[in-house]
Amino acid sequence: MAKAHSVEHSRSHISCAKRMSTHIAYALVVYTLLLIFIVSPELETKGMAIWPYFALVALVAAVIPVCRNIERRWQALDAGSGSELEGRLKLDEVKLWIGAFGIPIVLMLLFKLI
To answer: Is 50 domain-assigned?
Structure first.
């Protein structure tokens, strides 16, 4: 019981902005790996075409500004820290992870159809 209280207590001292930043970093890694391993095979062409690799770089580059905007918003929100931020943080974390897994899966399905 004391250990659970200690974990909860230490987690509450980590700012929401820092927690969101950590989630964004991990989500970008997962997103990139999914692009490499499930989308990239669908993009491969015969020969030594380099365009699929440029497409992967473009797909990663497209989500970085979105993630940076989320991070900036949480830095601004964290300045006015409150208990209501916990619910908003969880909702944004869920949205972030749905995007990290969903976008590559949707892209893979689209490329399979084409």
So the answer is: yes
Residues spanned by the domain of 61: 15-113
For residue 32, how many other CB atoms are within 10 A of its CB? 17
Global pTM reads 0.81
2 lies in some domain: no
Smallest Cα–Cα separation from 102: which of 94, 92, 90? 94
Task: Quote the DSSP letter at residue 83.
Answer: T
Reported as a single tens digit per residue, the pLDDT across 26-42 is: 999 999 999 999 988 88
- For residues 104 and 34, is the Cβ–Cβ distance under 8 A? yes
Residue 7 is assigned to a structural domain of this protein: no
CA distance 15 to 44: 43
* Dist. CA 111–CA 114, nearest whole Å: 5
The Cα-based distances of 57 to 18, 26, 43, 64, 108 in angstroms read 26, 17, 13, 11, 15
Query: How many domains is the chain partitioned into structurally?
Result: 1
